[in-house]
Backbone:
């Protein structure tokens, strides 16, 4: 996904939890017993928030920007949604909300877990649906009736590694740039926290050093530092980690400080990348206040869940919603173009009906990917990677 007014990878467009006692800063936390890990309650409200963030991104892709989606509609989405397009344009900030959630979840899942188990859980979670989406989108785009060009066979094969962006290879999935950011975050967290053993002191040091290093990287304008430290996205991941520390102990002032500093820096980057002066030549106009409000709402929502304020939002269907979020996120953009064209230009359905039916179609496809691919391959891959030779 590419955001207006920027170039890749600078911008464009995916959890449960546990209560635990905070330990003194100098004392490492012992790894939790396997039984305790199994007994952790799931934060279903966080699953619901993930789906909301994914739907925000879909709204952005279908009605909040120009580009290939204009070809699917037959005209600019600004004409298709005269009133709503300016609201849809804020949907790209769903990615920042994803990153905050990811910081929370990765810190939670890596706490007390050995590196091998952490690696196995991430690989088995990310790749099954991703591989299926790569194959599916490549196959659909190769059909003669589809107006969009498929990438070359060689590039499609490289895309299976999830390393296509640093290699400069054409991307099958527009949204995969966010996965590249996630992979770099996982690597940093694994090397600095999981491998030596997660505890409060080490996590706080990681957040502090990464925050300072990212700021230095921004000031140095050094591409290698930007690549490793991700100044633009770091405050959102770090903010999520801080929120997890608050989840463990809401009286932890240091954790609250991490959250606050991350929010302050994060809103700066969001405004810097997405705000522009009013200009009729731009697709839409996002106000700086609106951008700050969406970023703040994302931080606040994860924080409220972490504090237990939304504990009543515990409906079982939210677990299903959480399971659908990742495959939906992978397939919704490119296959959404094909669906919009078929429904709107092919069948003549109105814009809003096409919008809604396309969302439903992508959620249905996500459900199929979850049932037929993830539920079968994820445990096989995880168990295979955990098996000691």
Residues:
């Amino acid at each position: 996904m590419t955001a207006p007014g920027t170039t890749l990878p600078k911008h464009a467009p995916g959890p449960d939890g546990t209560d635990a006692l905070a330990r003194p800063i100098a004392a490492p936390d012992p790894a939790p017993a396997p039984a305790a890990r199994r007994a952790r309650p799931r934060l279903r409200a966080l699953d619901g928030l993930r789906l909301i963030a994914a739907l925000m991104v879909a709204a952005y892709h279908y009605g909040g920007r120009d580009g290939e989606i204009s070809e699917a509609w037959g005209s600019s989405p600004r004409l298709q949604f005269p009133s709503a397009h300016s609201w849809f344009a804020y949907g790209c900030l769903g990615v920042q909300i994803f990153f905050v959630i990811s910081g929370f979840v990765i810190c939670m899942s890596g706490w007390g877990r050995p590196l091998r188990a952490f690696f196995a859980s991430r690989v088995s979670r990310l790749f099954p649906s991703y591989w299926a989406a790569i194959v599916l989108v490549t196959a659909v785009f190769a059909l003669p009736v589809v107006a969009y060009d498929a990438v070359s066979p060689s590039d499609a094969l490289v895309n299976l590694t999830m390393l296509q962006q640093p290699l400069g290879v054409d991307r099958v999935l527009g949204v995969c740039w966010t996965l590249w950011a996630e992979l770099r975050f996982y690597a940093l967290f694994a090397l600095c926290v999981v491998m030596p053993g997660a505890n409060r002191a080490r996590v706080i040091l990681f957040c502090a050093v990464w925050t300072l290093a990212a700021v230095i990287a921004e000031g140095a304008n050094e591409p290698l530092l930007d690549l490793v430290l991700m100044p633009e996205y770091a405050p959102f991941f770090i903010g999520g980690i801080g929120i997890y520390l608050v989840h463990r102990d809401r009286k932890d002032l240091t954790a609250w400080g991490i959250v606050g500093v991350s929010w302050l820096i994060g809103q700066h980057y969001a405004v810097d990348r997405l705000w522009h002066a009013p200009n009729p030549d731009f697709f839409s106009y996002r106000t700086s206040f609106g951008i700050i409000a969406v970023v703040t709402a994302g931080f606040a929502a994860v924080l409220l869940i972490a504090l237990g304020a939304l504990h009543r939002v515990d409906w079982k269907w939210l677990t299903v919603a959480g399971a659908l979020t990742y495959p939906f996120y992978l397939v919704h953009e490119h296959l959404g173009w094909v669906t919009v064209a078929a429904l709107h230009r092919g069948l003549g359905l109105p814009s809003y009906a096409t919008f809604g039916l396309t969302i439903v179609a992508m959620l249905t496809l996500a459900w199929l990917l979850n049932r037929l691919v993830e539920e079968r391959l994820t445990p096989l891959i995880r168990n295979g990677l955990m098996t000691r030779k």
Residues 351-386 form the longest helix (36 residues). The chain is about 65% helix and 0% strand. Confidence is low (pLDDT under 50) at residues 1-39. The CA atoms of residues 70 and 76 lie 5 Å apart.
